[in-house]
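Lecture notes, unit on protein representations.

Consider one protein chain, 809 amino acids long.
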Amino acid sequence: MEGRSASVWICLLGAGLALALSVMTSKALPRPPRLLGCVFLNRANVTCRWEAGGASATRYTLQIQRIPGAVALTTNTPLKTFTCTTSDTSCTADLARSSVRFTFCVTITAHGLSSNTSSDRRCQPGRIEMMLPPATLNSVKPVNGTPQCLHVIWSRTLSEFSVSDTEIKNGSLNSQIEVTEEGQLDSQVTNVTVKDYSFPVCLLRPGTLYAVRLCHRYRGPESPWSPWSNAQQGRTAEDVPSAAPAFWRQVTQTDRNGWRLTSLLWKALPHVLANGRLLFYNLTCQTESSAILNDQGTCRDLHPTRTSCTFLLPAERCSCALSASNSAGTSPQAQIWLLGASETEPPSPRQLTARPLDDNSVNVSWTAPANRSVSGYVLEYFAVREKDGSVLHWERLNSSQTTFVITEGVKPMERYAVSVKALYSERWAGKNRTLHIYTRQAVPSAGPVVEVQQITGGRLELSWSPVPVELLRGFIRNYTLHYTAAKQPHRSVFVRGNVQHYTLEGLSPGNYDIFMQAITDAGTGAAGPIANVHIGSEEISKMMYVVLSLMVTGSLALALMACLAQKKIKRKLCQFVPDPSNSSLVHWIPKTTSQSMKQPWEPERPQIANSEVILFCENEPLNYDLDQITENFIICNQTYSSLLDSSGFRVPQSVQMSKKLFSRGPLRKPFTTDLSPSPILYSSVIFSHTLKNPAAPLLSPSPHQSCDCRHVSDVTLLLGGGSAASPKHQSSTPFSVVHSVSPSTAVHPQPADVHSPKHIFPQSLCSSGLSLQPDTFIHPHLSSLLPPLFVDLSYCPAECDNHTSPAVC
């Protein structure tokens, strides 16, 4: 056991001694630096980089020895040494015009506080790490027949470029070319194979100007790239344009004949499609029947800088074609078609929405039309302005694209109209769907200008014009109308944004200051100009006068309406009756007279010289005398000179109405022939003449006459023996009472007979409109002298027309 424990202690002691020796050795021998690489410049200098060794190193020394050749290595000839000292990890040593074709040995020594350490020595030809000087680029030219290539020519300085022509031809150079397209910031670097002092560079765009630079390195990646050569510009050869311009149209005006002033729009071909410098555009339009339109308006001689022109197109279907030309040829044609002026456009896209992304971009999206296949879309947008027109921006999109981000020409606080149209079969364009949008709204920079339309008492009518859209800077939601007067509190009202007039009522006299402000989603804008309005006390008085005048006028109007209503009723009851005295029978003289007839039971009564037909309406008490009757009765203003019955019996012209009675009536109203409102009629008829000619021609009633004579009562007939022309002739005449006489019994003409009432009361008595108001009555004194005669006139087939001559009635 004791032997084992002794051996363990010996092992532990040995391990400790080994550890102590290693620590002492590491402190005594620091880690040397490690060479990373060098760059040799022919007949100039060499720059080497290394990795630092121990942390105690304070400075480094770079030592480069030039080995003249293999023979010199075996002799004791001293070597040419180049050195440099630095505290950094890189250093440049001068080679004293030594060529890089020599072999160079490189050593790096680190100097510490207590000791120095050196890196391993490395020896190799200088050309392995040689950096070639920049090449000289002489020219860059197009290649005929190959518009995608440029021909590059370069050169070198032999004393500085230590690569022989043989080595160049053998491919000892690695080369790169840098190509920058005109107008582009990014450059394209491409590896090229250079075996001569000229070589082609291809895969370029035709007709494009490029700036070209060149660089080389010797053989492999150990050699660094030379600096870029000088730049040279060269343009590739032009090629025929590879695509047609984007083409669109906008109908701006249509005349009465359907001719349309159309703006034709296109976009300049980009360089990638133009394949050269455009010289001009070609535009032609024709009708659907292939008739070429020669009146091209402003579309002649289109300069390559033009992107629009106007063309007058007819009302029928037509199309226009556009192409671009350069020195190599003409592009394919772009075509648009227009429907006839009277044709209906196909439907528009659905659900158009626009959402601002920031101050200068808007995301627009839509949905394709339902149940219709489209070939593409056209998106249009422009800034809405009032003073001057704005540029129409448009994009033609394919059928699968239903969203687009607008970035060109969009500014904040400016209103834009955005619309989308669908294209059908690559030809017809549908209706557009439009909306307005702001990328960012702000408060209006001006307020509306208030104008006073009318001042009526305390009522003030105002109007205003919308603020110009350039000053709105947002969507108007409301207006605030402010008005105030001296010694009165400030007042304001809100008005909807779509209203342009407002009325303030109940204003007291005074001087008012009125102005308005517009309100957008961003807030309330600036105040508009102040309008000063004076409302005086006289305006209130005038208002009162106007109100009173209106009240009086209304009362008069109501009274007039009542009178007109009463007049209409009277016309219904006392209708117009034609006057037989104005007929052609006025001058007829009967040849025969009827004999006076007297009933034995009747006393003698004085004769009445002239016959009078008295028509009046009864609405008074029955205690009037004859004078009162003529003074107060409402007389139906008609005069009769002749009457006829249905059997042809003629009542002579001497039967007349008393002019005295007619002229003294308080009201004189014409009658109409409609007697339906009068269920009971009363008439007083007085005859005095001699029937002389029973066979006189009959006076037939007019076929246009009609009336409804229900009852006639209290009719008194007095037949006098005298002539109508001799009022002094008198004779007593008896009376007969006749009951229920029907016109149906009048079949043949018969002599005058007092027992035949149909002769005494002819049908014309009814057909001539002989009627009174329902309130007609017989004065008691007159009725006592005239025995009653009852006649049933229920059936009166004849009709009366107010426009017919009285002789007919």
